[in-house]
Amino acid sequence: MPKDIAASVSIDAGKEGAAGDAAERTLRPTIRPTLAGLGFLAMVLAGIIMAVNFSSNVIFAMTFLLLGVFVIGGWQTWQNATGLAAAAWRVDPTFAGEAACFRLTVREAGGRRHEDIGVACEFGSHSERHRIQAEDSVSIELRRPTSQRGWMPSVPATFDSAYPLGLFAVRMAIPAMPRCLVYPAPAHGGGLPMHTAAAQAQRQFEAETFDTLRRYVPGDRPGRIAWKALARTDELLTKTFDGAERRPEIWLRWVDTPQSDTEERLSQLAAWVLEAERRGVRYGLRLPGTDIDPGCGGWHRDRCLTALALFSVDAAPADPT
Amino acid sequence: MKIARLQKSPLVTSVARRWVFATLLVAALPALLHVQWWVAVFVLIVVAWGMAAPRSRTIGRLSHLVTYGFLVALVAGVYFTYDAWFSGGAMLSFFIGVLFLKWLESNTRRDHLLLIFGACILAALGALYWNTIAGATHMLLVVTALTVSLRAIHTGLSEGPWFVSLRQGAILTALALPVMGVLFVTFPRISGPVWDVGLAFGLPVKLMLDRKDNGLGFGMSLKTGQMTRLKQENQTVLVAEFDGVVPYKSELYWRGPVFWDFDGSRWSLPKNWDKRGTLLRRALRGKKAVESSLRRKEKPVTYTVRLLPHGHRWLYALDVPAATAPESFVSGDYQLLSIRKVRQEWRYGMTSYLTYGAGQTLPDEDRQRALAFPETGNARLRHLGRTLRQEFGDDDAVLLEIARRYRSEGFSYQEGVPPPAGADGYDAFYFENRNGGVQVIAGSFVMLARAAGIPARLVAGFRGGSIVALTDFLIVKQSHAHAWAEVWSEDNGWVRVDPLDYVRPVKDLPKEARRLAVQRPSEPKKAPGAATQRAKAAAKEQTVRATNLRGKDDGTRDAEPGRSWISGLSDGITKWTIRYDPARQVELLTGVGVSAIDWLGLLAVGATGLFLLFLLYAGAVWVRRWRRHSDPVARAYAAFDKKMTGLGLPRGAAECPDMYRRRVGRERPDLAEWVEDIVGRYIDIRYGPAPAPGQISAFRKQVKRFAAMA
Question: What is the 3-state secondary structure (H, E, C) of B133-162?
Fold first, then answer.
């Protein structure tokens, strides 16, 4: 099943960034005067002209002191920004309409406290400012609203700080915020489609049919112990029965969704996946062009949701049934 | 360079608002003391309203109206209390008022930035009236407040008490002080109004601005008090560019009309003086004629003059011109004259001798004119002249005595004292008030010389000029107008004597040169006996006194013995800060061995200074970080290791302190006690319970003692 493999690859991609942990890098700042800084310089220039004009040493001194404050302020801005290191962002897939939560761990390596560090990226700057203590690590969280299923593209992000005077601003390129997988928003209501026998996953064997023996594990019910086998082999074995541990199995099918719109159908399927997972039912997913065999558990759920998130009508065969 | 953008101007915190207000108040204080009293009252009312008015929305609308009301009141106040809209006081009052009104309605970050920038400009304007150490201290306060305000505006400063914020701001300002020092010393100083500088470099600023009379402002005669009025003007007369170094300003006499005829109240030129024919008949045409008529010529200077139009004939040249320029000639009185009246900007190159004796012979007709004075007025002065002649005999001795009298008999120079009028004007000046302007001083001198039988004449013109720092440009203004005398000496011809130098010694020469300058006019050409000796001694004593007096005028008293070192120090500070000027800059930098002082050199020195400063800062930061990061115990233990290695007992890489201690105990029993102690302490600190306060320092001390041991 090539489609299946593609989906499982996508799951790893959905947790992008997790692999980049080792690649922590020191942030290199660039510094520029702000608009306020330019205003300040204009004032200094006016001061110099005044001082020359009136040959006033007090004004000269004042002007140069202001220039000194400007330079030292800029230097402090620079000092405040250097010595930070950051690894890659982490983000988990999210459902459309919820905010994707990006997390970045910033480590202080310069032995200094850093004030007033903010994150800025394309979708608006983050109003919260961070203080990072010396030799400390801080997890910076950024929530990015989502609206549409599928891949949310990666955006570059920067740190910025104009501490302490706001005359200079420092920018540091931090790792770009990775692309993030957005699942379809689950629809409300609608029970699981358990109705048609044809839709049910077939059990392989009758319930309670003896299947096989396996090595005894403490905690197995004594009634299941194969005493006869013990007599024969001196080994504690446990009888397993097909269906005993299997939960009911269902197929979640595209064709079973009551809606007609593609997005609404996907939302319905997403809701079913979540519901099935919650109830502990084994479920498979059958989309036009993609089948995922029944299973359960987080990994299986993510696989199904990923398939839903990346579902494209064009890629599906012409006849969805 | 791309500009980092601040986000939309957010509101400031109340803490920031308070700091900005404090900055504004501190900055406005000196300016407030110098404008009409009602401005302070106005500010008080505005501030009271700002504090009292609740910031609710309904009041918000009303407060706009109130602000407009305040503005109208401010304009009305300025209108009714100041003569002119654009007078300094009116503008300052308006600026203060507007700043505080702006404070009233400001709440965004951008507004507050503008406010503190405005406050800085206001403080600078205030410093104009307060150019002292106190003013400088105030400036420091303003900048500190500004720094705190900037921090407050940017970060909000909502945490921590106010004095912590203040301390942080003060630290930043203190770190900026060395930068200020370097820039203050090395920034190329340009003196004088900005438009003068522009003028010097050929910008036609002034020429466009006014076409008023720019010359001496008088034509054929010099009436009583005319010079004083002229000296109050500030129009530029000419700009001179010197080849090479500009001579001392006190040596620069720009020669204008030469007056022979005195009628008791005014000096005038002959009636037909202005006629070209008359002038040309006596003129010295060409360089050769001029040179050959000079008996003494020293200190040649070459320069180019840009003369602004003034509607008269004279082209000013330095005393005494040695050549002619195109379309000009040198008159018999050594004035450089144009063949037509100067009605547009005139540019000419010129060479002059600053020290001269001019004229080979003095025809009898001229001698008569140079000795004439009205026989009616100034009886006492005439009598004094005769007496001096009888007492001292020879011309030089008489001149010395006259000089001595000007110097030591309580004359003082003050422009603007109403000059005594009438036929006895010089008597009134010389014997009674002894206080007058340059015109009456020079005039009375000529009168007295004539009375004593020495041919003398009065020369009007300009003396000195403003040097545009670090260039060879000199700007001469009407305020430099001057009058001096020339006396005929049989040996040297016409020689310049400036009586003002007797009354008020010159300022801008270095000390030795200054002494010479004071003595030079009185230096005997031939030693004429006891009278000269006496005069010389008096002159010397007088020079010393006058130097001190001059010092007091300037506020640059040299420290005298017996004065406390504190006042000496404060004088020194004043001298090198408040009175730091282009000359001092050059003096200072030559003092530290910078030979070529020009713009480039200064900038290079400044850049080097700043670079060294930043190396220092970076070093300090590095050391601090290293200290914080390295553990004192580890450092001490490393020193101990080094010492032991030196003693031939290196600690093995795998040896723990205890093993090492035991090994040393076996191998070097003589060191055992020391090693036992040091390593024991180390183990206690490292592996025992949290070390007691003195334990670490005791350990370090012990290591030090051990390391110091041979």
Answer: HHHHHHHHHHHHHHHHHHHHHHHCCCCCCH
Measured in residues, chain A has a length of 321
- Structure ipTM: 0.73
Secondary structure letter of residue B528 according to DSSP: -
Cβ B183–A67 below 8 Å, yes or no?
yes
Of A50, A112, A166, the CB nearest to B150: A166
pLDDT tens digits, one per residue of B678-696? 999 999 888 888 877 788 8
Distance CA B602, CA B623 (A): 31
CB < 8 Å to B629, chain A: 111
Q: Are B183 and B191 in contact (CB under 8 A)?
A: no
Q: In the numeric block, which tokens belong to residue B244? A: 């090479």
**CA B174, CA B171: separation in Å to the nearest integer?**
5
**Ramachandran assignment for B480, one of left (phi > 0), alpha (psi -120 to 50 degrees), beta (any other):** alpha
Query: Of B2, B6, B147, which is closest to A69 when you measure between CB atoms?
Result: B147
Q: Are strands A150-152 and A137-145 parallel, antiparallel or unpaired?
A: unpaired
Q: Hey, which bits of B131-249 come out as E strands?
A: 221-222, 236-242
Give me the pLDDT at residue A169, please.
92
Q: Which residues pair with A237 in a beta bridge?
A: A215
Query: Smallest Cα–Cα separation from B581: which of B611, B614, B556, B549?
Result: B556
Q: For the whole model, what pTM was predicted? A: 0.62
Flag if B179 and A71 touch (Cβ within 8 Å): yes
Q: How many residues are given for chain B?
A: 710
Q: What are phi and psi of B668, to 5 degrees?
A: -130, 80
Query: Which chain B residues have a beta carbon less than 8 Å from that of A109?
Result: none
- Rounded Cα distance between B461 and B480, Å, is 8
**Region of poorest pLDDT, from A217-226, B138-147, B580-589:** B580-589
| CB spacing of A68 vs B175 below 8 angstroms | yes
Q: pLDDT-based confidence at A117, cuts 50/70/90?
A: confident
Beta-bridge partner residues of B121: none
CB atoms < 10 A from the CB of A194, how many? 12
Distance from CA of A58 to the nearest CA of B (A): 6
Q: Are strands B435-436 and B412-413 parallel, antiparallel or unpaired?
A: parallel
Q: What is the pLDDT of residues B358-409, one digit of tens each?
A: 888 888 888 888 888 888 888 888 889 889 888 888 888 888 888 888 888 8
Taking an 8 Å cut-off on Cβ atoms, the answer to whether B124 and A50 are in contact is: yes
B4 CB neighbours in chain A (<8 A) are: 32-35, 160, 162, 168-169, 171
Q: Are A177 and A121 in contact (CB under 8 A)?
A: yes
- Asked if A32's CB is within 8 angstroms of B4's CB, the reply is yes
Of A38, A46, A72, nearest to B3 by CB-CB distance is: A38
Cα–Cα distance, B526 to B340 (Å, whole number): 44
